[in-house]
Write a structure and sequence with these properties.
Elements lengths: L3 E4 L3 H8 L4 E4 L5 H6 L7 E4 L9 E3 L3 E5 L4 H5 L7 H9 L3 H6 L2 H7 L7 H6 L3 E6 L2 E6 H4 E3 L2 E2 L6 E8 L3 E9 L7 E11 L5 E8 L6 E8 L7 H11 L10 H25 L1
Parallel strand pairs: 1-3, 2-3
Antiparallel strand pairs: 4-5, 5-10, 6-7, 6-10, 8-9, 11-12, 12-13, 13-14
The structure holds flavin-adenine dinucleotide.
Length: 277
């Protein structure tokens, strides 16, 4: 039973409090409240870290984008950077505007839902998760962050502080299918990133959510400049690594059928964004 809610106003205070036993972080609370109501929060103290200024906001340098974990989804949805398009698409697809104004990028990542809408994009853009705890700080590639449904590499007392994304000359996009927009998670979602590769070719990465216990990086590939991406090969590579299940959002066979149209849509949008970027 939760007995105490502490509003943290500095990073030092948050780190100290979160390292105490029986304490859980609350960001926007859009997932945590549901988790609490279904009996999945055992901690007695909640540390509310939304007021920690250092954890919020977006900054862009020539090399990378830095996004604080408390940055709300609505801000991420409005980034308007072609290379970060898949991340913005993912954030824009989450819930309703009320949910996006309250829910945070860090919350979406740490909830680690197999259907989290920002997660495939973080894999294809090779995002890095900056984590701090009582043992110090570490950087974990997003590609190694998710270990199971609702499970990450975060240890008790650790806070995800920010995410950095290397900026590349390219474009990315994300498309999903859902039963009820505004209220429900994705049945399946596909993120595509395209960027300038070696020898003036094109590099591609494709990630999928909703089709395995964790988000999956399914394709890393290169092809000659001017060549058409080989959709059949990409789809086959995805089908080979996903492990969809039957659940309330759709059967495993249906999830597999969704891959091709979502791949085509996301790829076409990524091509447009790469040309515009
Ligand atoms: C109506 C509704 C619709 C939704 N639709 C979607 C959807 O379409 N797609 C989708 O992906 N999600 C959806 N969600 C889920 C949710 O809104 C998102 O996952 C959101 O990003 C969670 O962020 P939050 O700040 O509210 O996290 P919280 O609920 O505050 O936290 C979630 C979990 O992460 C932990 N946590 C949060 N921040 C940190 C941190 N910085 N460091 C360490 N641990 C942390 C918390 O302890 C908790 O366990 C929906 C939710 C609702 C209520």
């Amino acid at each position: 039973m939760i007995r105490r809610l502490v509003m943290c106003s500095s990073l030092a205070e948050a780190r100290e409090l979160v390292s105490a036993e029986g304490t859980s972080i609350v960001a926007g609370g859009t997932d945590l409240v549901a988790m609490y109501l279904s009996g999945n929060v055992s901690q007695h103290t909640l540390a509310d870290i939304r007021g920690v200024a250092e954890l919020s906001g977006v900054s862009l340098s020539a090399e990378q984008a830095t996004i604080g974990s408390m940055t709300v989804l609505d801000r991420v949805a409005r980034l308007d950077v072609p290379w970060l398009g898949a991340l913005s698409d993912g954030a824009a697809n989450i819930g309703s505007r009320q949910t996006r104004r309250r829910g945070t990028l860090g919350g979406n990542i740490c909830r680690a839902s197999p259907s989290g809408d920002t997660l495939a994009s973080l894999l294809v853009m090779d995002a890095q998760c900056h984590v701090a705890g009582k043992e110090g700080s570490r950087v974990v590639p997003a590609r190694e962050f998710f270990v199971g449904p609702g499970k990450t590499v975060l240890q008790p007392g650790e806070i995800l502080e920010q995410v950095t994304i290397p900026l590349r000359a390219g474009g990315s996009a994300y498309q999903r299918s859902t039963v009820r927009r505004g209220m429900d998670l994705a049945t399946v979602g596909v993120a595509v990133a395209l960027w300038d590769g070696a020898d003036s070719g094109t590099s591609a990465a494709i990630g999928v959510i909703g089709a395995a216990p964790t988000p999956v990086l399914a394709v890393e590939s290169s092809f000659d400049a001017g060549a058409e991406p080989d959709l059949d090969r990409f789809e086959q590579q995805i089908q080979d690594v996903i492990r969809p299940i039957d659940d309330v959002r759709g059967g495993a066979w249906y999830r597999r059928r969704l891959i091709r149209p979502l791949l085509e849509g996301a790829l076409a949008r990524a091509v447009e964004r790469r040309a515009a970027g």
